[in-house]
């Protein structure tokens, strides 16, 4: 525990504050600069529970997450970002945004964080009902080259001559270069036969290998992963909703295309929101930052989508 974390833990046991935090529903009025202190104190009082902190905007959520890291271990606090795109804008969200969201959803099921900070847009957004397992590559393990390439393509990675941006991969002989959607640097997988002989990061400018890695997780570069259920749903939509026939056909055929994520609410067989996913894995505390402003923002977003 950090020094600030210990302070937060002590502060949370103030009798009046402790009583409020122990209530099923409570309203706490406090200065903005004390939010991280109170939230980290709440997180430290909970075991096997997830605290969802909802802010009116994504910018506020990002700033709050950065502040919370001073009080809690970085791994205990994650940001669940919203898409930068509007409903039916026909443009895919940023690759890193989609990767980070998928990583958080996977962690909720496998390694739950103590606090998830999010904006109201992300909180309201419907999610795919499938939590995708990342592709895990480890030193000295067996990897089938063709299967690896097939998985990367299914995950929405684009095949290029050189890897320079997130969501790209390239093959040169026995070497596969990949820029994972959640990573700051691309990785190089060097095979000897079917065995991972070397696993490194590399520099996009000179393409030279840099640091050795023991293992790496590769999350998808697209949030809509076409599986048999999604393809079947898209096939049914061709007759049910003929106005979108071109897109339904492409999804039914397993094709990836820019803007395909905007069709997720139609083809997801059992879509959920963030609170649903969390509740399936742990007890959930929901903290609303500036509730009135958050409610107004939610109303505006719902009206925007209806229009």
Description:
The longest helix has 16 residues, at 95-110. The protein has helices at 3-11, 15-22, 35-45, 58-68, 95-110, 120-124, 145-154, 228-240, 245-252, 264-267, 274-279, 291-306, and strands at 49-55, 77-80, 115-119, 135-138, 158-159, 168-172, 175-178, 187-192, 195-202, 209-212, 215-218, 283-288. The protein has 307 residues and is of the alpha/beta class. It folds into three domains: 3-130 and 268-306, Rossmann fold (3-Layer(aba) Sandwich), CATH 3.40.50.11180; 135-218, 2-Layer Sandwich (Penicillin-binding protein 1b fold); 232-264, no CATH class. The chain has a six-stranded mixed sheet with strand order 5-6-7-8-9-10, with no helix packed on it. The chain has a four-stranded parallel sheet with strand order 2-3-1-12. A two-stranded antiparallel ribbon has the order 4-11. α1 (3-11) crosses α3 (35-45) and α3 crosses α4. A hairpin with a 2-residue loop joins β8 (187-192) and β9. It is globular and about 60 Å long.
By secondary-structure content and strand pairing, the structural class works out as alpha/beta
CATH class of the largest domain: Alpha Beta
Q: Strand portion, in percent? A: 15-25%
Following the backbone from N to C, one meets helices and strands in this order, namely HHHEHEHEHEHEEEEEEEHHHHEH
């Amino acid at each position: 525990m950090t020094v600030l974390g210990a302070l937060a833990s002590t502060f949370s046991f103030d009798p009046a504050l402790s009583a409020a935090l122990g209530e099923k529903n409570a309203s706490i009025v406090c200065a903005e600069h004390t939010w991280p202190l109170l939230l980290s104190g709440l997180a430290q009082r909970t075991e096997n529970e997830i605290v969802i902190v909802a802010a009116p905007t994504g910018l506020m959520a990002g700033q709050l997450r950065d502040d919370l890291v001073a009080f809690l271990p970085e791994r205990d606090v994650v940001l669940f970002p919203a898409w930068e795109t509007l409903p039916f804008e026909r443009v895919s969200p940023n690759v890193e945004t989609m990767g980070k969201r998928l990583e958080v959803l996977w962690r909720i099921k496998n390694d739950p964080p103590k606090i998830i900070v999010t904006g109201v847009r992300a909180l309201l957004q419907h999610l795919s009902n499938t939590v995708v397992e990342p592709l895990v590559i480890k030193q000295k393990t067996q990897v089938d080259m063709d299967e690896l390439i097939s998985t990367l393509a299914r995950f929405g990675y684009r095949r290029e001559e050189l890897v320079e941006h997130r969501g790209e991969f390239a093959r040169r002989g026995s070497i596969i270069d990949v820029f994972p959607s959640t990573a700051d640097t691309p990785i190089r997988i060097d095979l000897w036969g079917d065995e991972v002989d070397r696993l490194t990061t590399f520099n996009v400018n000179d393409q030279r290998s840099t640091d050795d890695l023991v293992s790496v997780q590769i999350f998808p570069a697209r949030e809509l992963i076409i599986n048999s259920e999604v393809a079947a749903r898209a096939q049914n939509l061709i007759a049910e909703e003929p106005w979108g026939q071109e897109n339904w056909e492409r999804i039914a055929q397993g094709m990836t295309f820019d803007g395909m994520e905007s069709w997720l609410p139609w083809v997801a067989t059992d879509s959920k929101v963030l609170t649903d996913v969390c509740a399936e894995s742990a007890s959930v505390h929901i903290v609303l930052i500036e509730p009135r402003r958050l409610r107004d923002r939610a109303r505006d977003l719902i009206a925007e989508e209806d229009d």
